[in-house]
Amino acid sequence: MPKIIFFAGHDHDTWEKTGGKGVRTNLEADGVYEEFDTNYIIAKGAVELLQKQPGFTVLFPQQDKRRMTLKERVAYANAHGADLMIDVHSNASASRTATGAAAFYWYNSAAGKKVADIFAKHIKANGLPTWSGGTYASQATGWSSFYMLKYSEMPAVLTESFFFTTRSDLENYLLNPKVQKVLMKIHANIALEFFGKKALDTALDSVVLPDGREVVKIGSRGADVKYAQIALGRHGFETDVDSIFGKDTDQKAKAFQEAKGLVVDGIIGAATWAELEKKPQPKPVVSKPAQKEEEDMEQTAVVINGTADAGTATLLAFQLGCGVFFRKDAEKRQVAKEIYIAGGGKGKIKGDKLIDLSGKTRSDTAKNVIAKLK
Ligand SMILES: [Zn+2]
């Protein structure tokens, strides 16, 4: 029966006891976190998942959060004849924008590499970012010569789940209960797959930010990039809406973050999404005085029900180079020949050509309007 041993990197009081060893990040709004806190949550969750699986013995000597030196940890693992060691950590970097997860293995251990590859595969399969491609060979000397990998006698892996020192990694992944749950399963899957068992399904826990958006940054592509570009434009930071997060989008994202007092890293994570999805300060909506002469009539106009619809409608008007009018004015008199209706249906709106973009709900209308954008 395979024997798996788990460790949670560091101790609950590493910072205080050692005068700064280990990693601690201070998120002023949410309190103080030591790396051990999230290491322990993930390790304990993985241990509990594996204990429910038949055919495994799982050891977790830090169950009671007792302090153990590295020497004691390795000695314990070796003395108990563990067949696999999983040491759970988060990464640290002087760069406050480093991101992604990776597993370290001892450079000449083929079994260790196999374990690390399983971790990297599951990180990628869940749409989470990797660092260094998801695996890293620890060297005999230098910064990556980790004691736990060097002196353990069984296949071993030291997982670094994201960067504890990068605020967006901490907020989006390490402190996100959904991601924690995925990480617990991934760590359990390391053991299951290494010993030829079926991995736990993580699909039901697919990583979704609180607002339903993915983290996007330079190099990202797809629907969420497109939405970010539209939203940036709506807030006055116009960039091409091409679904590709390039240099210009990066600059506009940073300018937006600076304007909103956010961390300026160009990474659109939970905090930036929350600001982007807020309604922009409505631009002034101007109703023109009634036109007497037919030739003075505007060619095109966008008509809205109220200021709540102004966000996307203003963007459409900007692209069409026309004005935005309230429904009550557009029903009283013809404000343009061609009228785009952003909410509320045709009603009594006067015009030669009415293009009705109204949906069943306000967000349906917004989607229809966005679809009209280039
Ligand atoms: Zn660590």
Overview of this protein structure:
The protein has helices at residues 14-18, 35-51, 70-79, 110-125, 147-151, 167-174, 177-194, 223-234, 247-259, 270-276, 310-320, 327-332, 362-372, and strands at residues 3-8, 24-27, 31-34, 57-59, 84-91, 101-106, 130-138, 156-163, 298-304, 323-326, 336-342, 353-356. The chain has 374 residues and is an alpha/beta fold. The protein has three domains: 3-205, Aminopeptidase; 223-276, PGBD-like superfamily/PGBD (Muramoyl-pentapeptide Carboxypeptidase, domain 1, Orthogonal Bundle); 294-372, Rossmann fold, CATH 3.40.50. α4 packs antiparallel against α7. The protein is built from 13 helices and twelve strands. Zinc ion binds at residues 9-10, 35, 89. Zinc ion is lined by residues 9-10, 35, 89.
List the keywords.
elongated; Aminopeptidase; Peptidoglycan-bd-like; MurNAc-LAA_cat; N-acetylmuramoyl-L-alanine amidase; binds zinc ion; Muramoyl-pentapeptide Carboxypeptidase, domain 1; four-stranded parallel sheet; Rossmann fold; 374 residues; 12 strands; N-acetylmuramoyl-L-alanine amidase activity
Distance between the termini: 61 Å
Average pLDDT rating: 86
* Backbone shape: elongated
**Total domain count:** 3
Following the backbone from N to C, one meets helices and strands in this order, namely EHEEHEHEEHEHEHHHHHEHEHEEH
Structural class: alpha/beta
CATH superfamily of the largest domain: Zn-dependent exopeptidases
Helix content: 25-40%
Rg estimate, integer Å? 27 Å
Summarize it:
The protein is of the alpha/beta class. It has helices at about 15-20, 35-50, 70-80, 110-125, 145-150, 165-175, 175-195, 225-235, 245-260, 270-275, 310-320, 325-330, 360-370, and strands spanning about 5-10, 25, 30-35, 55-60, 85-90, 100-105, 130-140, 155-165, 300-305, 325, 335-340, 355. The strands form 3 sheets. Strands 4-1-5-8-6-7 form a 6-stranded mixed β-sheet. A 4-stranded parallel β-sheet has the order 10-9-11-12.
